[in-house]
Amino acid sequence: MRLTQSLLNAVRSASKPAQLMLYTGTDCQLCDVMKIEIQKVALTHPIQLSTYNIRDDSLPDVQHWRRRYQYDIPVLHLDGNGRF
Hints:
Glutaredoxin, alpha+beta
């Protein structure tokens, strides 16, 4: 998958374990596919993955992230830098 290769290239260039933030949603099949691709990369490269469900009203700043990504999930941020 193209995503896996792009993610591998980005992670390889990192000088430390890559910090990934995956913005997801409830019952999001594409989010599940993205998680599988990230797990493939994690088998051979050090990463730290956090997830944020934009449909979970108990999370901080959920309205901001929901407005920003409600039509785009899954969205992956690499080392805190925008969309990957």
